[in-house]
Sequence to fold (262 residues):
Amino acid sequence: MQNLNIALIQTELYWENIEANLNHLEEILWENQKKLQKSDLIILPEMFNSGFSMNTAKLAEPMNFTTFRWLRQMAAQQKASVMGSYIVQENGAYYNRLVLMRPDGNFEQYDKRHLFRMANEHHHFAGGTQKLIFELNGWKICPMVCYDLRFPVWSRNTSDNTYDCLIYIANWPARRASAWNGLLPARAIENLCYTVGVNRIGKDGNEIDYAGDSKVCDYLGHTLLDLKSNETVEVFSLNKEKLITYREKFPAHLDQDQFSIQ
Fold:
């Protein structure tokens, strides 16, 4: 069983400046090229090209435009899949869209379902309706975006273990860090999976502070990696054999309640 090597990119973001963020992130990837050589998946924060802004008219892009092409270029250069979200305009609506870009240029997407009403995100964006589960090197991965973390029904694994790893990308404020740090291991325990959270650091244009706390949790809820508040790139290897062995010894998923989302 092949391990999955994931790279967590925890950094500050330039407020509402797409060009500056793409240049900054490209420089980070270039400077850490040796560290990233064995990466299968490089994970960027939510709205990595702008910060968590509601300024859709200024920042939205159609698909196959600047940021999309940048993701395609980075994935090809790094020979790894690259994932992050940004503001996409499509069919007259705006989406906080997560794009998973593969090195060959193929991609998959997920639109954030739970829109953060305390920042009026639900007034500016349309919510997604379809969960994404993609395969990478024999792993099944379910990506989510920020506020989705608070809603366990949406992220619930199935009795036949539809996915092996949950990934949350975020702009999660420091003042609510206790929820972030508590819910990531909770999602891992209840879904018998690895859970990864990638958050930003610094201060945004609304004077909101971000503490980072990007981390990797195992199926027991143990924290295997914690980036604290550092601006850093860290590569971590997820062990599939240990996950399967634990599921066989502790098959709690077979006793879960069955339900459907209306």
Notes: The first strand starts at residue 4 and ends at 10. Residues 115 and 121 are 5 Å apart (CA to CA). The mean pLDDT is 97. The helical segments are 18-31, 33-36, 56-59, 66-78, 121-124, 152-155, 177-191, 240-249.
